[in-house]
User: What shape does this take?
Amino acid sequence: MPPPSAAPRKRAPRIGTLPLVLLLPVVVCIAIFYAGPILFAVVQSLQKGGAAMGDPGFAGAAHYLSLFGDRRFHSSAFITLVFTVGVVVATYAIGLGLALLLNKGFPGQRAVGGLLIIPWTMPLVVVAVVWGWLLDYQFGIVNYLLERWGVIDRPIGWLTDPDMALWSVGAANVWRLFPLAMVTLLAALKSIPQELYEAAEVDGADRWHAFLYVTLPGIRPTTIALVLLLAIWAFGRIFTIVFVMAGGGPAGATETLVIQTYLEAFRYFRLERASALGVITLVISAALTILYLKVSRAPGER
Assistant: This one.
């Protein structure tokens, strides 16, 4: 009996040239506007005085070593860490609380949810200017209301006091970001089967225990991805609000790594140090991004 013939192999589909041609403009734009500046910053950080200063000599890691031994860099790194942790924790807590409220359902729920989305739709400059007006030392409505209600005896320098400035710009950033956390967590809450809550109620669990043992485990994957996303945003992408409201001051109280990079480049004109700072910030942001992409994948794709 002759052996059965082998099953014909499926040929891999051929990719024509048209998709590659259509992708070419995107690739060129990424190379020019993303990869190009990154490569320029890396090269600039390894030069003595920068090509723009007429001294393109090779300096190696001198600027990086200088930064690691600079107290100002240590201060900016600590401020960035405190700012990032504070913004992430506050944004997640407010977003989770509002998501739990909207998930219960009540009259006017859709209208309230629509109003709560408004901060996310506002431009960053508008948010910074409005919050700057609200927190103004002399004419801000926050100080006016607190004085009128007898909470304070004199105005508080929300943006002029080094002890308050970081928390003030952090509050503005939390106000801008909490709708993202709210919508993301609300979608996660909607995906939890109602049968789990019914089973927990049959077992005698109250609302608190149902929240601990049903809700939190149910939204755990979303929580991890959301926290990393908020950390990426707070660490390396929030520049406009902090700069417009405080500009890194007073006395460097709001000088995050991103703000310090800007000041090094455009106030002190030390482009090589600014490039080194930018590279350090980019590496940390890239590490957070890779971690976010890894945990946000489906379990079967990891």
In short: Residues 71-104 form the longest helix (34 residues).
